[in-house]
Design goal:
With 463 residues, the protein is an alpha+beta fold. The protein is built from 14 helices and 18 strands. Strands 1-2-6-3-7-17 form a 6-stranded mixed beta sheet, with helices on both faces. Strands 11-13-9-14 form a 4-stranded antiparallel beta sheet. A 3-stranded antiparallel beta sheet has the order 4-5-18. The relative contact order is 0.19.
């Protein structure tokens, strides 16, 4: 593996160009208008897997968007690594907040990324990070350094809840059999502070609809006498947290995992500058649940957030209307032991119960997933730690993430394997936001680090 750094440097321009070609395709899974682009992206991923050295690759149909599967089997007696990633991306809206078109990738230097960062939707989440694994395989096969078997499962529905991936796994367990699952869809602390994500929060996502009168009304003739659904919805949402930002849904915290003082102290050892944190997102102060630090609020505590709210007239000028309906999309990030389906039902029961008789309420569950924790004493984590040490010259810090990859807990349940989360993004990469980007250094460093994981995992598996 000692030639990997040289290989990456010598092929830098091509490695970047090939990623940029993939980023140009608008693979937006949430919008049916982009179905053709989804298929085009899947075909591009398949092509790249074959060119990187897979013995075979195929586009596997599902009831939704297809899964791309590829494999390089060198010896069935050797360990097998299953790489998971996704080729779909978030919608780029609002477009007017992008400094460059979201599907016309550009490389720009920044204070954090003096080597440049690739600006495009999907640059970090997850095309750039998924593509690191394809290029790591390319290096290992071209230099005859692949020490074990590798399989790829690259899906097209992660950004819409991986609705059909469970179906795919159920029908392909033998094909997907592995000894460890490797994912790069998370981040690390900083260039000089490598970290490995050991925990993910779960997710419950719902949409609520509040209905008042049977049509929009004149706010002068009816205002004050008829319930305004937007006003009611605002009050209902406001009541979901108390003065300490504690969620008020009965039973919500019953199964929340409370970390020990020792574990919280270990988390606090990670480098953190609260003033820098506030500055990078341009806020005057942090805000959250009383009794917990900013890092704890964003990783080991559950949350409830309104992701969108609408109703009535929002066009130019004025229209004095009392709306018939109001809507909101609400997500709850959950911690280990909280079951997302149970939390969704607790939310539904409570939200319907607090509605006044003047309106009707409908709660529509969208999608969700369980939280996940990787134990640091398994050989997968230890191999990843040694890989970072070889590449960075430092032992990585185990770190829990505030984000969710809902399908991860299903992987362990159905495929009986541990999941290792080797992410190379930064929390400043604006994933899901305008101006998403991924550092050139981060992308190349990922390609350089991943082959070491294969080496150490194979060695440790055979001890």
């Amino acid at each position: 593996m000692k030639n990997i750094k040289k290989y990456v440097e010598e092929n830098k321009d091509r490695l970047l160009s090939e990623l940029i070609d993939l980023l140009k395709i608008p693979s937006i899974s949430a919008d049916s208008n982009y179905k053709d682009s989804m298929i085009k992206t899947a075909e591009a991923v398949k092509k790249n897997l074959l060119e990187a050295g897979c013995n075979s690759a195929e586009i596997c149909e599902t009831p939704g968007h297809p899964v791309v599967y590829g494999e390089k089997i060198i010896d069935k007696n050797l360990p097998t690594v299953l790489v998971y990633g996704h080729y779909d991306v978030q919608p780029p809206d609002p477009l007017d907040l992008w400094n460059s078109p979201p599907f016309e990738p550009v490389i720009k230097e920044t204070e954090i990324h003096p080597e440049g960062a690739i600006y495009a939707r999907g640059a970090c989440d997850d095309k750039g990070q998924m593509f690191m694994h394809v290029k790591a395989l390319e290096y290992m096969t071209k230099n005859n350094e692949l020490p074990c078997n590798v399989k790829f499962m690259i899906e097209g529905e992660e950004e819409v809840g991986s609705e059909h991936l469970g179906w795919f796994i159920e029908n392909n367990k033998e094909k997907l059999a592995n000894d460890v699952i490797l994912i790069s869809d998370t981040g690390m602390i900083a260039k000089d502070t490598p970290s490995i994500t050991t925990g993910l929060r779960g997710l419950s996502y719902v949409e609520v609809e509040v209905t008042g009168p049977n049509r929009d009304l004149h706010s002068g003739l009816y205002g004050g006498a008829v319930a305004n659904p937007i006003n009611i919805l605002s009050k209902m949402i406001a009541s979901l947290t108390d003065e300490n930002n504690h969620i008020t849904i009965p039973g919500f915290y019953d199964k929340v995992e409370e970390l020990s003082k020792e574990e919280r102290a270990k988390m606090a050892e990670a480098p953190y500058d609260e003033e820098a944190y506030k500055k990078k997102i341009d806020i005057d102060d942090v805000y959250g649940e009383a009794g917990y630090s900013t890092l704890e609020r964003a990783s080991i505590r559950p949350t409830l957030d309104v992701n969108g709210m609408w109703g009535g007239y929002i066009g130019e000028g004025a229209k004095t209307v009392l709306p018939s309906k109001a809507y909101a999309k609400i997500s709850m990030r959950l911690v280990p032991n909280q079951d997302w389906k149970e939390i969704t039902q607790l939310f539904k029961k409570h939200f319907e119960s607090i509605a006044p008789e003047a309106v009707t309420v409908e709660v529509k569950p969208h999608h969700g997933g369980q939280g996940y924790v990787t134990p640091i004493d398994n050989i997968g984590y230890q191999a990843a730690s040694k890989a970072y040490e070889a590449s960075f010259g430092k032992t990585p810090i185990p770190q829990r993430s505030g984000g969710s990859i809902p399908i991860v807990s299903l992987f362990e349940k159905e495929l009986k394997s541990k999941i290792i989360l080797m992410g190379f993004g930064f929390d400043t990469d604006a994933i899901h936001s305008p101006n998403e980007h991924f550092g050139v250094w981060n992308y190349l460093k990922g390609i350089e680090t991943i082959p070491w994981f294969y080496k150490y995992f194979t060695e440790m598996s055979q001890e």
